[in-house]
Amino acid sequence: MFEVRIQTYWDDADPAGRVYFPHFFRFVEYAETEMFRASGTERMKLYETHGIWMPRVESFAKFIRPILAEEAISIRLRTRFQGEKTVRMDFEILSVTDGSLLAQGYVTAVCIDRRSGKSRPLPPAMREVFARAEEATNQE
After folding, report:
1. What is the pLDDT of residues 24-45, one digit of tens each?
2. Number of domains in the chain
3. Residue 1 exposed, middle or buried by CB count within 10 Å (0-12, 13-18, 19+)
4. N or C: which end of the chain has fewer CB within 10 A?
5. 3-state secondary structure of 62
């Protein structure tokens, strides 16, 4: 499992001071980026080096409690491979203040070749980053 703390801001929220629900997925993307940085690499550099993209092909979220504007949250990512080309990232979004579960769900991404747009196996460097999070998940 990979975990990162994220601060929300007023501009994430609607006029009632609640974070707009699509932003939950943006926070999950931030956590994925930080997972790559924590491993010592940049996700976009790997995309460029290997000539790939990782489009999201499926996502799901269960919203349990709203995130309030300017609330600190923690994102937990658990990864698992689905074959050679696909990775699923299960997530939990928690309040830093009291640890309560705010949302949970998953995002599934598939590796594609930039030129052809066809799916292809994840490059070893990408698999390694996701595998570290998967191994940490299996050790819990």
Report:
1. 999 999 999 999 999 999 999 9
2. 1
3. middle
4. C
5. strand
* Residues whose CB falls within 8 Å of the CB of residue 59, separated by 6 or more in sequence, listed in order: 25, 105, 106, 107, 108
Q: At what angle do helices 43-50 and 124-139 cross, to 10 degrees?
A: 140
Beta strands in 82-134 (DSSP E): 86-95, 101-110, 112-113
Residue 40 sits in a domain whose CATH number is 3.10.129.10
Distance CA 13, CA 67 (A): 9
Verdict on whether the full-model pTM lies above 0.70: yes
Choice between 136 and 82, residue whose per-residue pLDDT is larger: 82
Which residues lie below 8 Å from residue 18, measured CB to CB, with a gap of 6+?
66, 67, 68, 69
Token duo for residue 120: 């292809």
pLDDT digits (tens, 9 = 90+) for 91-127: 999 999 999 999 999 999 999 999 999 999 999 999 9
Instruction: For residue 136, give both structure tokens.
Output: 């940490």
- Contact between 96 and 117 (Cβ < 8 Å): no
- In the DSSP assignment, the letter for residue 103 is E
Give the residue numbers spanning the domain of 132. Answer: 2-139
